[in-house]
């Protein structure tokens, strides 16, 4: 009975948050390092289905860097990262598309369906969702989204279907295939949808300052300074870069959080506590009314 009362109390305490996020668009980037084993995948999928059940429109954008590394290793293809992005040649981009659009995307779609939701897996190529240019000549076939066509995502979520997006895209010319960093893709999608929230799930509790403390709030100016000072480095660069871009385009807030903690998305959206590091154009962590 005590357990039942605790559950009921917890649900009751969540009411203001459930009301606040009803109808909200929440883009969730599920990083390869946050994915973990089948049980962690099932729990993530259950949280996404719960979000949908309470009237949120979740859009999942995934990564899969470690899974790409495994396959490149098996094929004997060497790979390196520059400022958190994989240098991608023609052979590598084929492996990236195979792993992201195939293996990883379908694993997430299956997990959401196993949790009782409806999910459709697409990549940035489908319906020209994300059209790219080369990001930087040094990186090869790494794309920077220059044209977003997000109507397909709205069509899916308005039909009660959870879109699951693999960050692979078409180029502006010659039908080139581009490897897009998962964080970059998630930010571009959140920006184009003017999402209420972008949640970047990773394998650290948030953005750490120079002394290693996790910052619960960060402003865009602090991010620029910490990047210039080298406090933000490696894989954190695409995350904070994408956060700034999404906010500039109208996303209300971005949270970088540890996807390995139980029910990470629910803690962030539906509790007083929140999780990770939140970035918004103006401080503090006061959630605006997001009902549409
Ligand atoms: N200031 C910072 N705070 C937290 N993590 C940082 C920071 N600077 C660099 N990092 C690194 O960024 C990594 C997260 O990026 P990445 O490994 O690409 O994650 P994912 O695979 O989830 O996208 C962390 O594991 C950490 O090593
Ligand atoms: C250009 C670039 O870096 N693309 C990434 C795409 C996958 C990804 O972003 O995976 P995580 O989110 O798990 O790191 C890559 O090739 O690894």
UniProtKB/TrEMBL annotation:
- Keywords noted in UniProt: Amino-acid biosynthesis, Arginine biosynthesis, ATP-binding, Cytoplasm, Kinase, Nucleotide-binding, Transferase
Indicate what this protein is called per its UniProt record: Acetylglutamate kinase
Its UniProt entry gives the catalysed reaction(s) as: N-acetyl-L-glutamate + ATP = N-acetyl-L-glutamyl 5-phosphate + ADP
Identify the residues that bind substrate. Answer: 64-65, 86, 179
Q: Which domain of life is it from?
A: Bacteria
- Organism from which the protein derives: Fuscovulum blasticum DSM 2131
* Transport listed as a keyword: no
Q: In which pathway does it act?
A: Amino-acid biosynthesis; L-arginine biosynthesis; N(2)-acetyl-L-ornithine from L-glutamate: step 2/4
Family annotation (CDD domains): AAK_NAGK-C
Q: Which gene encodes it?
A: argB
Q: Name one GO cellular component term.
A: cytoplasm
Task: List the transmembrane segments.
Answer: none
Q: What's an example GO BP annotation here?
A: L-arginine biosynthetic process via ornithine
Role noted for this protein: Catalyzes the ATP-dependent phosphorylation of N-acetyl-L-glutamate.
Q: What is its main location?
A: cytoplasm
Q: What Enzyme Commission number(s) apply to this enzyme?
A: 2.7.2.8
